[in-house]
Amino acid sequence: MRSALRKSIENQVASFTMQELVAPHFDPNWHFHPHYQLFTVIEGTGTRFIGDNIQPFEPGDTVFLGPNIPHLWRSDPSYFQQGSVLQTRGVVVYFTEDFLGNDFFSRPEMHVLQGFFAESVRGFEIQASYRDSVRESMFNLLKANGFQAILQLLTLLDELSQSPDCQPIASFGYVNNHKVSETERMQKVHDYVLDHFRQDIRLDEVASLAGMSSSAFCRYFKTRTNRTFSEFVSEVRIGYACKLLIEGKSTVTQICYESGFNTISNFNRQFKDVTGMTPAQYQRAYR
């Protein structure tokens, strides 16, 4: 398995990096890097992990992330099946805070943008009402070069910093407590849960993957993620259930068991704990 490392994204011929990503699936490695990142999903579905937040994603999902916040867009299992013809596509911008010089964003005129950058340590989700505008700007940025590219990026960042449609993703006070040396251990845990959440997951098996006793692993996981391991598993299952509810192809009872829950009462209770709604209410609200 490829280790999940702190990424370093550099552009040798420009001050920031702009990429269109096309692949059979999104990068399956849980990672973080010292760059700001603006990312939008054009094609693909799955589960998104940002800081301590877990949500399903689909085309249109657009986020802005501050430096060093762990993240992962895990494509659905169908994207990894042998012979799959599915593909994912996204557009991403990476830049560092000093990409225009050490003091550029320290100027008085950048006060609002400074606050936006400071709050982006939790990540921002761009709400549906504003996504189309952001995505259009990103596509235009893909075609821009030189000074025009800088102007367009600064204009986009200014608009984002003043928009009420940028909502925080990770919980208030979230801090990345992961060390670069620990990412492979957490990658193993993420991979195991994402591959087995539809089944019963034994704590001792997961703890052994991390090279710990069950009790030590529980303490370690809570310290690093601000949630218990059982809460994490439940949120992964709920995230998958949300995706199935949005698709609307199965009954709530079918979705309950397909998502790894053993009883409908437990499913309803945990779903409401996580989303604030019952499965039926969630489905109606989305539609």
UniProtKB/TrEMBL annotation:
<dbReference type="InterPro" id="IPR011051">
    <property type="entry name" value="RmlC_Cupin_sf"/>
</dbReference>
<keyword id="KW-0238">DNA-binding</keyword>
<dbReference type="GO" id="GO:0003700">
    <property type="term" value="F:DNA-binding transcription factor activity"/>
</dbReference>
<keyword id="KW-0805">Transcription regulation</keyword>
<protein>
    <submittedName>
        <fullName>Transcriptional regulator, AraC family</fullName>
    </submittedName>
</protein>
<dbReference type="InterPro" id="IPR009057">
    <property type="entry name" value="Homeodomain-like_sf"/>
</dbReference>
<dbReference type="GO" id="GO:0043565">
    <property type="term" value="F:sequence-specific DNA binding"/>
</dbReference>
<feature type="domain" description="HTH araC/xylS-type">
    <location>
        <begin position="187"/>
        <end position="285"/>
    </location>
</feature>
<keyword id="KW-0804">Transcription</keyword>
<dbReference type="InterPro" id="IPR018060">
    <property type="entry name" value="HTH_AraC"/>
</dbReference>
<dbReference type="Pfam" id="PF12833">
    <property type="entry name" value="HTH_18"/>
</dbReference>
<dbReference type="InterPro" id="IPR020449">
    <property type="entry name" value="Tscrpt_reg_AraC-type_HTH"/>
</dbReference>
<dbReference type="InterPro" id="IPR018062">
    <property type="entry name" value="HTH_AraC-typ_CS"/>
</dbReference>
<dbReference type="InterPro" id="IPR013096">
    <property type="entry name" value="Cupin_2"/>
</dbReference>
<dbReference type="Pfam" id="PF07883">
    <property type="entry name" value="Cupin_2"/>
</dbReference>
<dbReference type="InterPro" id="IPR014710">
    <property type="entry name" value="RmlC-like_jellyroll"/>
</dbReference>
